[in-house]
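quick one, 585 residues, struct below
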Amino acid sequence: MPIRILPETIASQIAAGEVVDRPASVVKELLENAIDAGARQIEIEILQAGRRLIQVTDDGSGIPADEVGLAVCRHATSKLSSAEDLFNIRTLGFRGEALASIGSVARLTMITNTHESPVGAKLTVEGGESVNTATIAAAAGTRVSVEDLFFNLPARLKFLKSDTTENRHITGLVTRYALAYPHIRWSVTQDGKPIFQTTGSGGRFEILQALFGPTEASKLMPVNFEERNLKLEGYISSLALTRSNRRDITLFVNGRWVQDPMLTSAVIRAYNTMLMVGRYPVAVLFLNIPPELVDVNVHPAKAEVRFRDQDAVFSGVQRAIRRGLLAFTPIPDLNATRLWGRSLPETEGPGWQQNGLSVDGGQSEAAGGGEFGTGADSITTQPQPPLPGSHLPLLRLVGQVASTYLIAEGPDGLYLIDQHAAHERVLFDQLMAQFNAKSIPSQALLDPAVIELTPEKAGILERQLEALLSLGFEIEPFGPNTFAIRSVPIVVDRSDPRLAVEAVVTAFEEDETPLLAEVEARVAARVCKRMAVKAGQILSEAEQRNLLLNLESSQSPRTCPHGRPTMIHLSVNLLERQFGRQGAL
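---
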């Protein structure tokens, strides 16, 4: 095939793909332009997750009418004049590609005016071609409307996720930039519904509450560190607040949100030996460093940076966080109640139920409750092939070890049973049996449990309300990003229902594309995971026996709903070999 020069239209679309890959990318470029223009108020309106409309309005300096046409040309910028300026960048934008890239894959309309001019200008661009430029009466500032995103790239349009996911990306982006620029008054509306807004007072805590929720925001600790050319401020989580992934480690460098593996690693290393394996902290950090010591021109989307002295930055960030942890983390108060969930085992515990064990919903999940096996997607809803026999044999309880495992004797040897995983299986089987029979008994709450979520999580919960209703939960909106839980399935009625709902939201937040056919099973599995007894919780002898009896009746007793083993079988033959009764192994 002969070498040829690509048409300008295709070249522009290729370049646009490096900058604009989803609606949130458009929002990012437009709000960064607004910040560079000195805006004190930024309003963002979204329709159909950005597919139909993305509109960003600011009260910044605006663009002179005679320069509007240049603003949508590739590599046209007012922020650079020479190559040396690339190493002294003090603005968020500088490449001159944002508006050109957006205009090449959407229908773009821009209305702008400066504070000095009596009239403004209106520019329309469609698929990279300037359609119309006109003089118009307009207030000072700029309004950019992006309609029919990817209308000329249907293949790219098909790669977009669900509306809930795309909206979540947009809201997450804006809330993080609001943290970096709290003096700006932000407003986000999605499909006519106010999602997020700030007062522009300059305080970050109100924005932290919107991003993480009031409860989690209260567990964040301030960090303020300065050393030579490095200044670091922000918030880090206490040891009581962790995540199963790195998603909530947010890093800004000179006011720019970046995804930098080195900085992320420094944050995680600062928590070394303090967190359980597989758990990650929450952090919102703002790093300020002289512009000449950082290179931001390494990625078209400006999402990556390079430091002149990478080791100094790494060690500085790590020291700052470590000092903050040592300063704010108190010495734990060790007592029986906090270690085990209750002081002493009882013959008939307060949570005793006919159909299974009740749970203290306030207990934190310990090592026994992590994600293992095939992950959250793999919900064991069908009976698994038995190891031998179709069910567990009759088991004789021996006792409990480390407040985590049950020891039982069967006709073919010993069974070590993980109490958390086993109780997950028992609760899941009971809940799904009731669901399949369309007869889940619910218990109305005397006082509705009110749960307040972040805008991102509230959108996820709204989409799963029908699945939760089918499982016995009655939940209704109770204000902006707030929900009232009015009834719960009886199988979990002695636990805090807010923990179950939060677990459901987290499950669908981490997995954006669950199979529709297994939504109820996914929700039930997460609810049962949160409600099951935890590792480290002492069970009475009656509770241990009841757990064994329920596990024996399960069709899939050997794994929890997420695929993690519930038990280890030590056969009599293996024990005899270990003790040398049948020779060495």
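Confidence is low (pLDDT under 50) at residues 331-390, 512-517.
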